[in-house]
Structure formats: C-alpha cells, structure tokens
Here is the input.
Amino acid sequence: MKQILILAYKLLVNDKGKYFALLVGTTFSVFLIVQMTSSFAGILTKASATVINIGASIWVMDPAATNSVLSNVPMPDYVLDAVRSINGVKYAVPLYSGTALVKLRDGTYQAVSVIGLDDSSLVGRPKLLEGDIDDIFAENGFIVVKDEEFPKLENPKIGTDFELNDYRGVIVGIATVPTGALYGTPTLYTTYYRAITYIPSMRFTISYVLVQPKADSDIPYIKQQVTRLGYLALTNHEYQNAISSYLEYKTSIGTNTLLMTIISFLVGLSICGQTFYTFIIENLEHFGALKAMGAKGRELVYVILFQAGFTALVGYGLGVGLSTLLITAAKLRLPEYTSRLTYTNLSLAFLMVLIIASISGYAGVRRVLRIEPFEIFRG
Here is the structure.
C-alpha cells in the first residue's frame, strides 16, 4: 500500500500544470469561504459588544428590544423594584444605553454610545487603563473606551473636556473592553443618573435591568416571574444569540454571506472537478498499466482518493494561511476591520473542501474503474 501511495504522489506532482491548477482552485475556494464567514463572525461578535462587555448574568428588557442593545425600549421604575423582590435574585441594578452627539474642542460633532452604570455599584464597569474608577462620581465625569473608534474623539486624554447637550463632560478615565462596537461610534461610560440627566429621554429611563441570581438554579424561576410582569429575561448567552439570530435571519447580512459562501464553494468545485477529471483522462495509460500489472480496483481507488485528498488538504492549508495573513494585515492597517477566525469558520471550510475532494475523486474513480488494459496497449 505504501508503494501505491508513493506512486500516486509522484504521478500527481509530476504533472505540474494540473497540480498547480488544482491547488489554485482549492486555495481560492477556501480563501473566499473563510473570508466571508470570518467577516460575518466578526460582525456578530461586535453586534453583541455591549452584552459581552457588561457581562451581566441576566438581562431584563422589553420584549421588543432583542434586536440590538441600541434599540432598547425604556422601562418604568417599578420593573426594577419588582425584579429585586423576586426570590433568587441576589441583586438587580438599572442600566442606561443610548446614543448622543458630543461637541469636541475643535467645534466638530461626533456621535457616541453612552452607557450609564448603576450609581451605587457600577456593575458592568470596564477595566481601566488610566485613571481611577471613583473619579466617575466627580462632576461631569466620563470614562472613554480605547478601541478602534477612540481616534474619532481626537484621542482624548484624562482631563479632556467636551460638550454634551449643553452640559460639560470631562474624561476621567480611559478603559479597555473585550470587544469593540459594531456601529462605528466611540463608547463613553458614566453613572446612570448623569446619563439620564444629560441625554434627553422619554418618560421611562431604564434601558435594562441587570440581574445577578443567587444560584444558576434560580434562573428559570426568575425568567418565569419576569415574564409574568410582561417583560423578557435573557441570560447573557441567550441575548447574544438573539442579536445574532436577528442579523442572520432578518437582515440581508446573513443572506448575502450565505450566497457568497455557496458561490465560493461552487467556484472551487467547478475548477477542481474539471481539472482533476482532465488530469485523470490524461493519465489513463498509467492507470491502465497499473491494472495490467495486477493492481486491483480497490488499490486504484486508493490512488485517486489519495490524490484528491492530498490536493484538498494542501489547498486548505494554503487558503487558511492566506486568509489569516490578509485578516492580520487588514487589522493592522484598518483597526475597525471586523473579521474573526473561529473554529466554526475553519470547520465549515474544511467540510466544504472534503466535499469538493469527494466529488472530484468520485468522478475520477468512475472513469478509472471502467478502463480496460487492452484498450490502453492497443492505443
């Protein structure tokens, strides 16, 4: 068997033109698949940035607010009191999430996302790179997140001031968060009371109620009681999935990604399938000679499958490597670039490569098994 596989390898690489065409087809297909799915994965992660960064165990919200953190529906104050009274709740705090326009020192205006943290506990506060968290209680205190959108605020330093709805704001801390936002706006953290004071809002001001259960076993009961109040309670993971599902199934982003992935697969299949079949046709005399020398049909199948599989694996490695290199270079050049490699992306690309190799190999196996040695020698 070892000798057969060595022969299959030499037969494959000796035809440099066909071998190169097979690698190009597979590599290009894998590259497109990984690029599309990685971009989509990056978008999904950034869409849930606030949920990930705050890290609350349970999010209580209006049932209509599951599409995005920014599309929240304010809730009345009694919801907070009612949630706090539920058995199994360790604590519950309000959260403000909204957008505003800030006026910078040079007179330009910049849209920002504002997160208002509970004044007494600061649950969900970011990790500070500079400054002291207690300074958020100072007059006009705001903490800015240093992410890819940070330069839009003219790279502020501690002490930098700005204007928000005729109120003066001062940067008292610079923070980092696990995930940057999707919508291209810098993020500011402040206290809940300051947020609802500075930013015009409707009669109700609570965007979310963040809940910490006493134990994980209390979560189902808490969710049930919140539902009886007419509101919705989702765990951190469930809320991320709800946001992702909205983007996947109710916007054009998911559809476009699916179509491009399918097209990439078909492009790779057509190039590799046609090239591999041509390779088999041009090497029929070699397969006929092997059959005349006593090679069994099973061994010829091994030869074909090895050639298809070897090409697929090499092309997969080159495609993933090229995609990784491009994503890394793009992030260095464009910090807001959203692509993100995941095991799911890589597994999907690998599965599609295996399908391409299987279909290409199947076409070759059928042709090789039909040849008769005397036809080769007679020719």
Remarks:
- The longest strand covers residues 89-103.
